[in-house]
Predict the structure.
Amino acid sequence: MTQPAVVRRDHPATSPLRTALELSAAGVPVLPLRRGKVPFGNCPACAQNVCGGRPNMKDPGPCQCPGPCHAWAAATIDPAVITSPAWASAWRQAVAVAYHPGGAGLTVVDLDNPAAVAWARQTLPATRTVPTTRGEHWIYQGAMRSVNGVREGVDLKSTMAYARWRGPGTGTMTALPDVVRALAAKSPTTVRAAPCAVTVPAPAGEGACPHRTPAYLERGIAMAEQRITDARNAIHATVYRTFLAVLSTHGRCGCLTEEHIERLFTAAQAKGESPRHCTDAWTNARAKLGL
């Protein structure tokens, strides 16, 4: 997405649905925001993300829910989805429109107060800016992982995040600079130990675990780590599917240890998944397999 300026400023006279359709035509994945300016909650079938979540508009993932109930992951550029009956109720209740910056190849530097804005003007390369209630959004061309609180009053919103649409802004959008990427590097992801080892016993009658050869198990874990590391989009869905694949092969025989699970969590967090997302994906995969 290179020309968000073609979209008018969102204001009371412009309905959220109309704004969303204009944004999607410009290549910006959108979703409705309800009262409180937050995404719609999970539908009953997807409560607590038991469906495994939904990655983005290009890959529907394991969830077949047609509604906008997966926050940033529901964002889409497909007008048929945006105007579908499944989204109609959400648009009737919507008070604003949000978009998925990473899905549009963008990064938003969210400056939440005047001090943060002053810092940005002194530190960051000029780019398109959008005024907000308390500060400004600085929008750069290029995606990266999202990180909150990289410094006082500064959040980075790109992949796996949403930003409220506040209008096209002013100024020429420039390429995502290294100084912004470095802000994320200064906030290393905390690696969370695996919540528990998978110790489901081998099915009755199969005798000794067939996977206890170190080379077989090591190759499987290494391949899973690599699959997560190589993902370029749909990170959440890739992590969930990888966890599901590992558990379907090794989850019933007691092969997996906390060390193995921690390696998978570490790979996922390096791609921007939060510890909670990792835990949810692991729990959902286990539930899917009945473990």
Notes: DSSP finds nine helices and nine strands in the chain. The longest strand covers residues 106-111. The longest helix spans residues 214-230.
